Every structure is written in structure tokens, then in C-alpha cells.
């Protein structure tokens, strides 16, 4: 197939540091190329890919300090429009920007929702395009807007060979992610201290979260037991994950997926997570970690890390969250949308010649792994 991948422009593909969506787009793109699809990646000029690269901006918007991301993403869509006839399917990862873009006669689009979709101001945007095919990255994510045209849930998948198995020999548990209130690094610090466990805090600080960091987190760093290492690159991130006794994931928001959870488990590192959003889907409670209802339960779970088999964590990811599984599921989505387009065009042609009385609305249901 001839496939266009529209990447977010906040980071390069793959990102040099933090950037879960861009990392997933990279894994998917490279695996599609390996499977002999003709893939065109619309991304930043400093991206690295075996696909054909259409450079939209010179570098990631976040590292470049570009405050307004709307304009560059509209340029990305304009570049796509100029080449749209070349593609069999377009896969958008750029939030809702591409929802109004498709016209009659265009190849099918599918939109993966990588972020939250539950905010009140988002509801009218998505509701205005009820027939655009959407992919959720967890079943829980779609419950915010169940009436939309969800064609599949496709879990993120990673190349497990890039994540070496670790023995957890470090004397710490790890918090890895954004320094933001909904990710709750301040709770991670408090829980680790109550459990008597050293915490390594590896997190980027965006300007929008700096006030939270200075108010809630920075004062806690003056006390012993917490090492704040800031934002880490890929090699350092994997080392921290492999050597950690556990990943502490005390989120308090409708987590759409949580890529760091499968990265940790791929290294054999169990996950201690709040029961919030996708976490019960991603973590096998009592097998690859513990899904907890409150801070007291998080603290107790840290005392039970030794009950878990690190090899089982890695097997769980290999069986359920590999790049192979993810790409298989997206290929299923692409093929279904292509078949529907052919079917609808054929039916429409027959309608114009008087051989049928109506054009049916396509019904789409694709289960992961189908």
C-alpha cells in the first residue's frame, strides 16, 4: 500500500528525548517500510526514517521554542494536499487537525487519538465530524466520546529487542514522564518516602508546568531519598528502566495509554500504577505490576515488588504490545478502509445508473489482533 503518515511536529521522529507519540510513529513507519509498503512520512526535517520524508519544519517545535503549533500543522496538511492522489490511505497522528480535511474522492483517512479527548472544549470539535474513522489507543479512551466512529483500539507496540532485559539491580524505583500535575511526581515522591524506597525522578519540565514544579515538587527535592535527573535521552532512559526495581506511575488523569509502562515491562520492570484511564488494560494486576486505588495502596505495592516475576513482565509485552502486533492491527484498519472505499464507490456508481436505491453507510468494527 501507499501510505502517508502525518506526524506531530512538536519533536523529531524519533525524538531525541521525551516524545511518546513521535516514538510510536517512528516504530510504525519503519515496520511498514520493512513490510514493503510505500510510506511517506510528513514530519520535521531532522527526522530519521527509511520512508520518504516530507520535511514540514526544520526541527521540532518544542526544542525550537515555537509557541504556536497550529500554523505548522496547517502547512503539513497543505503539503499533504499537494500529493494526496499518490496515497491509498492517510494515517493522521496530529490530533483533530486533519478531521475536516478529507474531501469527496480523497483516499481514506484514519486518525489515531494519542491524547486526551475528554475536555469540554473538545467535545464539539469531535462531534462535528461523527463519520471520520478514529482509532483509540485504549478501550477506556473512547468512553469519553463513545458516539464517534471508532474503527479499532490499537495498543502501542514497541521493538522489544531495543529494550534489553534488566535484573532491577538498582536501589531505586523510577518516575519517568512529564513534570505535570496530572502525572503527579509529587505523589511519587511522597509514596516512595513512606515506603522507604529511593526514587529517581526523570522528567522534562515544559514552560506550562514550571509553576507546578516550583510550587509542588522542587521543595521536596531538598530532602534525601530523591534524585532528580531531568529529561533523559533514549540510552539513559532505557538504562534507568532496566535497572529500576519498579516504575512508579501515580497518574490522576484519563491516561490514554502510557507508553512508559510498556517500555518498563519490556525491560522486565514491573509497574506500580494508579487505577486511572488505561492502566488496568496495560498492566496485568498481580502479574506485571499492581494497579492501585489510592496512595496507601501504592505504598503497600512497593513492598510487594519482590513477588513479581520480571520475565513475566517482558513476556506480557512481547505477546501483547510489540511493534509487530501494533502494525498487524493498523494494516487491518488500512485494508478495511480501502475495501470500504471501493465498495462505496462501486455502490455510488451503481446508484447513478439506477441499479440500487440507496448508498449504505459502512459499518466498521475491528478488534485488536483481527
Question: How would you sum up this structure, described in words?
Answer:
The chain is an alpha/beta fold and 370 residues long. It contains twelve helices and 13 strands. The protein has helices at residues 20-34, 61-64, 70-83, 123-127, 185-195, 210-217, 234-243, 259-266, 279-282, 295-302, 310-320, 323-352, and strands at residues 2-6, 38-43, 52-55, 89-92, 109-112, 134-136, 150-153, 172-178, 198-204, 226-228, 247-249, 271-274, 289-292. The strands form three sheets. A seven-stranded parallel β-sheet has the order 3-2-1-4-5-6-7, sandwiched between helices. The chain has a three-stranded parallel β-sheet with strand order 8-9-10, with helices on both faces. It has a three-stranded parallel β-sheet with strand order 11-12-13. Helix 9 links the parallel strand 12 (271-274) and strand 13. Helix 1 packs across helix 12 and helix 5 (185-195) packs across helix 10. The protein is globular and about 60 Å long.
